[in-house]
Amino acid sequence: PLSRYPPLINDISFWLPSETYSKNDFYDLARTVAGDLIEKVVLVDEFTHPKTKKVSHCYRIIYRHPERTLTQDEVHCVHQAIEESAVRELGVEGRF
């Protein structure tokens, strides 16, 4: 069912660790940390640094609770947990 409550949108970007990284790894990690608070995760930008050849991804995460309006403070805590988990578990280098 669709929620009638407004979404909160936050972006996260980071440098990828290596060729072994998969977008699905990040999707799974975000959903594991935030659960049903995430409505959608979308890769919105991919950038390759011209000198270092490092690759960066930027994801847009749309948060929405099915039964109430979320506050930015609530979402910030969840978003920060996703950032920390991505660094720890996926080996990315944060750009946040």
TrEMBL record:
Pfam family, one: FDX-ACB
Enzyme class: ligase
Record-level GO cellular component terms: mitochondrial matrix
Domain FDX-ACB: 3-95
SMART domains the record matches: FDX-ACB
InterPro entries documented for this protein: Fdx_antiC-bd, Fdx_antiC-bd_sf
SUPFAM superfamilies: Anticodon-binding domain of PheRS
Similarity annotation: Belongs to the class-II aminoacyl-tRNA synthetase family.
Gene behind the chain: Fars2_1
Catalysed reactions listed for this entry: tRNA(Phe) + L-phenylalanine + ATP = L-phenylalanyl-tRNA(Phe) + AMP + diphosphate + H(+)
Gene3D superfamilies listed in its UniProt record: Ferrodoxin-fold anticodon-binding domain
PROSITE patterns for this protein: FDX_ACB (PS51447)
Main localization (coarse): mitochondrion
This enzyme's EC code(s): 6.1.1.20
UniProtKB keywords: Aminoacyl-tRNA synthetase, ATP-binding, Ligase, Mitochondrion, Nucleotide-binding, Protein biosynthesis, Transit peptide
GO molecular function: ATP binding; phenylalanine-tRNA ligase activity
Localization (cell): Mitochondrion matrix
GO terms (BP aspect): translation
UniProt-recorded name of the protein: phenylalanine--tRNA ligase
